[in-house]
Design brief:
This protein is an all-alpha fold and 351 residues long. The protein has helices at residues 18-27, 29-49, 65-90, 105-132, 155-178, 193-215, 224-262, 265-278, 291-319, 323-329, 331-346. It has one domain. It has eleven helices and no strands. The radius of gyration is 20 Å and the shape is globular. The chain crosses the membrane at residues 30-52, 72-91, 112-138, 158-177, 197-215, 235-254, 261-282, 294-315.
Length: 351
């Protein structure tokens, strides 16, 4: 990593008291702006969507818009409960100074803007590649993921989706930045393995229980052969197609730069949530055929992914280890838990 002059620690990420972190979050203009934005997005969906969502969700025709919004707001409450749990489990740990892991401000700004442009280009190219082969656009979710649509994909599409995302959003950015910055500067090493392991186990158990209760995944109805073959295949496929791309692009590279540029825990976590939502703009259930559909799609993307993206950012801010969210809140629950039936169907794995 480049040598540079010492910087003032990011509030709440150095070895400071937990109470100070909570107070700083409550005083944060960014936090209150996000709360107002959340309320505005809810209102926008109610006004524009009508009684039924104009989206390709599997239950859009069966449930009202209001019912969907209730679910999403309940999920946000669960997000804050998980974040509170993470705070309690890490309150005695010395928090890393993520801003100190980023380059000086001008370089951090330049790299952030270039990454945003690169990410937008990667999504646009993924859209074009998917359509060129008669597939769904390549976003950070495989079509049919998370029970969101009834879409199923071919084996070729699933493999191409995973390979494209792995190369564009994980391998290429990591190779570029790893030549310039250390693994620690990219949040790729643990400063407290035992603490990280405990955090992973607790959050994973809580999230698996919540996902099981909320989504009632069909994995429990699969046969032994489907589980033995389908679960490992799902893990590998989604690790390549969404987990590693998300981890590298947002939580290893962007999060330290957000910390450097904002000097705020709350704003860094909020930007992490927004970046995570933006990477799903091509999800197969979205509709962009009209301004109304596009507005509802973007609003629903924010309501769906902003909260989980914040949890991942919070886990990274509290531990300085981008791998923690991979195991605690992404690869196993929800994806392996929820998407194994989808992958078993796609690859023709029968009982």
């Amino acid at each position: 990593m480049r040598l540079r002059s010492p910087s003032r620690p990011l509030p709440g990420t150095g070895p400071s008291s937990g109470g100070g972190t909570i107070r700083s979050l409550l005083r944060s203009r960014a936090a209150w702006s996000a709360a107002l934005g959340w309320a505005a997005v809810n209102a926008l969906v109610l006004v524009l969507a009508g009684r039924r969502l104009p989206l390709d969700l599997h239950d859009a025709g069966e449930r009202t818009t209001s019912a969907h919004l209730v679910d999403l707001n309940v999920r946000l409450a669960e997000v804050f409960l998980v974040m509170g749990l993470v705070f309690l489990l890490t309150r005695r740990r010395s928090r890393p100074d993520l801003a100190d892991r980023a380059p000086e401000r001008a370089t951090a700004l330049r790299e952030t803007l270039l990454l945003i442009a690169y990410g937008a280009g990667g999504l646009a190219l993924g859209f074009a590649v998917g359509r060129a082969f008669g597939w769904h656009p390549f976003g950070l979710h495989l079509a049919g993921s998370m029970n969101e649509t009834n879409d199923h994909v071919t084996r070729a599409e699933a493999i191409a989706w995973a390979g494209y995302n792995l190369v564009v959003f994980a391998v290429a950015p990591l190779v570029y930045f790893r030549r310039r910055y250390s693994a620690r500067a990219l949040n790729l090493v643990s400063a407290d393995r035992r603490g990280d392991l405990r955090l992973i186990v607790v959050v994973l158990l809580v999230e698996a229980a919540v996902q099981t209760a909320a989504l009632r995944p069909e994995i429990f109805g699969l046969g032994a052969r489907q589980l033995l073959l389908g679960a490992p295949l799902t893990f590998v496929l989604y690790m390549a197609g969404t987990v590693l791309p998300t981890m590298v692009f947002v939580y290893a590279i962007l999060i330290p730069r957000f910390a450097r540029l904002t000097g705020s825990v709350a704003t860094t976590v909020i930007f992490g949530g927004l970046a995570y939502a933006a990477l799903h703009v091509s999800d197969s259930w979205t509709e962009y055929g009209s301004p109304r559909e596009a507005a509802v799609s973007i609003a629903f993307l924010l309501l769906t992914y902003f909260g989980p993206g914040m949890v991942k950012a919070w886990l990274t801010v509290r531990t300085g280890n981008a791998w923690v969210h991979v195991w605690a809140y992404h690869a196993l629950a929800p994806h392996t838990l929820v998407d194994t039936p989808h992958v078993a169907h796609t690859f023709g794995i029968h009982r």
